[in-house]
């Protein structure tokens, strides 16, 4: 007997309190046997699953996907992760499973950990799910805009009428060759009703197919509202169910009684059928009707259709139905029924009054097509639409979708709310419209170099409608545009970081500026000086570095205290800054020592010395004018040492050092003066 590599005690310690589903299994032939389950797994499968194989307790449509990924992990001998969806309780759930293979001697084990992924945060999955519902239905389905243009058609419709979507997209649907003039007018009338927000069902339409044959359909028109507001219809979802054979048999029924049984035979193989007398008593049903309702033929014969009544429809609904068929008119509509076992199902029903040779009604024949799946799909689409709207209305993230040219196709509520725009002001506009100047160029460059199926991140400054700047951190994904062969769309999810950027800018300012005088500090000039040198080289100009020291500053601190001393340094720095040109730089080195970088000086020594002297004279004059602190007048002096680029050096520290040496010489001889370094 092989000892388990993962004992039960250790399994419970590791996963006993986990909310994830955890399964420990042994490979048995082509199957896997459950050995240990944690609490959530037991709740899902029951404790009886332990010791059984996956195929013993799970439907084939589920365990085939599981076996495929388990076998892949064993084959590769490393962890495999996969995702899948399950439909439960009218909602789609998404799961991610990690499969870890374990090999002990000649035995193979699997540790599988399944996590549920919050479906609301994966917008792209919702989009793909809605497209899957639309394109994989067996019913001919089209999406028509509110002005009657064909936006989309599923493969079944295109196959039925031999159409290419690229040839007919954006054409007026009623102008297509599949219509006769009469039916085109009829379709326009139904579309107009749907565009007013009305749901239409079981409307009769005829089309000419690819072989030139006229085919009959019942049509359901479902309006699509913008932002779920029932006052504005943006398109209509049209689902067509063919009833050509039924119509043919209905015509035969009017001409001969024998045709009734031929029609019954045809319908028996295509739909549920029942026949009642004038009082609604069931006198015949086909096998499909029996199978659908769950009742035996004996239970149905002699009863009325009340036996399958679900209680969904009102008394007035059935009263109107009876008035219609008793007048000899065919009734078409959708009915919600209930099986013997309590299950609800929907049917698209046609009730035909059967007439004798004198035109009197003898019986009623009901033909039922099960449309439960169709109703469920429509409900799911509406649920997803509501879910998406709920996410859109409640998230603080700014969500925008553009095409490959940067034209806005969609903007979320948070986006329009924060920027102050109405959706109509943004849809169809360039995304760069809401970006600041520098970010416009950044975004244009990003668009030019964008790749398909890529994820990227960048920081952009948005500008609100009233001109305020809004910093955002943006993550965008490039996806294929399924409405066009070679197009793509950009899904951008942005989060506001304005406050964070303010703090970052404040910290950056503090890092490169003196906290007392707010002047640039030594770190700032070290960073900027290479750029100043490059500009001087490009312009063929000279640079002067002035090392400035306040005379007798220590006496001010000793006599008046540090608070006055700090105020004095503040005034001293402002006086220096007001004395130089706008392109010059004043830096506090430390204590009462300052550095001034004079740029754009001529290289001629005499003219340059004269330029520097003029600025130093202004400094002296500004200091002499002085300032008042705590009712005390201060008119300080300063000593200044000067060095020049490129005469004395090419590096900042070298020029500062030489200017400091010249300053020392000034202070040795006399204060309130300046000296240019002499080598």
UniProtKB/TrEMBL annotation:
Task: List the InterPro entries.
Answer: Biofilm_reg_signaling, GGDEF_dom, Nucleotide_cyclase, PAC, PAS, PAS-assoc_C, PAS-like_dom_sf, Rev_trsase/Diguanyl_cyclase
> Which Pfam families does this UniProt record tie to the protein?
GGDEF, PAS_9
Every copy of the GGDEF domain together lies at 541-679
Domain PAC, chain residue ranges per copy: 331-383, 454-509
Q: Which SMART domains match?
A: GGDEF (SM00267), PAC (SM00086), PAS (SM00091)
Residues in domain PAS? 275-302, 384-429
The record, for PANTHER family, names: BIOFILM ARCHITECTURE MAINTENANCE PROTEIN MBAA, DIGUANYLATE CYCLASE DGCP
Q: What is this protein called?
A: PAS domain S-box protein
Q: Which organism is it from?
A: Ureibacillus endophyticus
Instruction: Write the lineage as a comma-separated list.
Output: Bacteria, Bacillati, Bacillota, Bacilli, Bacillales
């Amino acid at each position: 007997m092989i000892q388990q590599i993962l004992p039960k005690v250790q399994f419970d310690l590791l996963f006993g309190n986990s909310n994830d589903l955890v399964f420990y299994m042994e490979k048995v032939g082509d199957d896997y046997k459950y050995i240990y389950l944690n609490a959530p797994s037991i709740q899902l499968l029951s404790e009886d699953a332990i010791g059984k194989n996956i195929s013993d307790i799970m439907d084939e449509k589920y365990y085939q996907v599981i076996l495929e990924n388990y076998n892949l992990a064993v084959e590769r001998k490393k962890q495999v992760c996969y995702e899948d969806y399950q439909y439960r309780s009218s909602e789609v759930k998404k799961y991610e499973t990690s499969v870890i293979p374990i090999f002990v001697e000649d035995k193979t084990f699997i540790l599988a950990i399944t996590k549920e992924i919050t479906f609301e945060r994966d917008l792209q999955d919702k989009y793909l799910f809605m497209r899957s519902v639309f394109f994989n239905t067996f019913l001919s389905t089209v999406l028509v805009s509110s002005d009657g243009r064909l936006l989309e058609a599923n493969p079944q419709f295109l196959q039925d009428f031999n159409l290419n979507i690229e040839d007919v997209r954006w054409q007026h649907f009623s102008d297509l060759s599949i219509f006769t003039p009469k039916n085109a007018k009829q379709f326009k009338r139904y579309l107009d009703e749907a565009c007013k927000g009305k749901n239409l069902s079981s409307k009769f339409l005829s089309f000419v197919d690819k072989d030139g044959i006229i085919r009959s359909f019942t049509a359901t028109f479902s309006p699509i509202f913008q932002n779920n507001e029932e006052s504005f219809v943006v398109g209509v979802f049209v689902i067509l169910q063919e009833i050509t054979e039924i119509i043919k048999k209905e015509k035969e029924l009017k001409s001969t009684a024998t045709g009734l049984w031929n029609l019954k035979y045809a319908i028996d193989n295509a739909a549920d059928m029942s026949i009642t007398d004038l009082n609604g008593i069931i006198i015949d049903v086909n096998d499909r009707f029996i199978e659908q309702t769950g009742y035996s033929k004996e239970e149905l014969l002699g009863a009325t259709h009340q036996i399958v009544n679900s209680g969904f429809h009102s008394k007035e609904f059935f009263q109107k139905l009876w008035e219609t068929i008793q007048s000899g008119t065919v009734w078409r509509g959708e009915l919600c029924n209930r099986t013997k076992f309590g299950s609800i199902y929907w049917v698209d029903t046609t009730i035909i009054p059967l007439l004798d040779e004198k035109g009197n009604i003898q019986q009623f024949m009901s033909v039922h097509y099960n449309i439960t799946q169709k109703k469920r799909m429509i409900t799911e689409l509406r649920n997803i639409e509501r879910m998406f709207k709920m996410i859109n209305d409640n998230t603080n993230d700014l969500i925008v979708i553009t095409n490959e040219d940067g034209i806005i196709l969609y903007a979320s509520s948070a986006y329009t709310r924060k920027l102050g725009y109405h959706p109509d002001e943004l849809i169809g506009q360039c995304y760069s419209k809401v970006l600041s100047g520098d970010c416009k160029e950044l975004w244009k460059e990003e668009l030019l170099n964008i790749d398909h199926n890529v994820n990227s991140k960048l920081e952009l400054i948005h500008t609100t409608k009233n001109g305020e700047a809004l910093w955002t951190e943006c993550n965008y994904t490039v996806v294929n545009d399924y409405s066009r062969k070679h197009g793509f769309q950009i899904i951008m999810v942005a989060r506001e970081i304005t406050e964070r950027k303010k703090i970052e800018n404040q910290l950056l300012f503090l890092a490169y500026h003196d906290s007392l005088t707010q002047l640039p500090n030594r770190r700032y000039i070290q960073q900027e000086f290479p750029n100043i040198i490059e500009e001087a080289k490009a312009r063929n100009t000279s640079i002067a570095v002035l090392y400035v020291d306040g005379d007798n500053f220590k006496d001010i601190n000793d006599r008046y205290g540090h608070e006055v001393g700090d105020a004095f340094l503040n005034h001293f720095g402002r006086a220096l800054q007001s004395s130089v040109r706008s392109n010059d730089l004043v830096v506090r080195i430390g204590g009462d020592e300052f550095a001034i970088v004079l740029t754009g000086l001529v290289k001629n020594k005499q003219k340059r010395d004269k330029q520097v002297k003029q600025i130093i004279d202004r400094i002296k004059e500004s200091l002499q004018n002085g300032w008042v602190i705590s009712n005390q007048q201060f008119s300080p002096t300063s000593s200044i040492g000067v060095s020049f680029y490129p005469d004395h050096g090419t590096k900042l520290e070298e020029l500062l050092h030489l200017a400091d040496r010249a300053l020392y010489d000034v202070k040795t001889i006399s204060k309130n003066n300046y000296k240019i370094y002499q080598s």
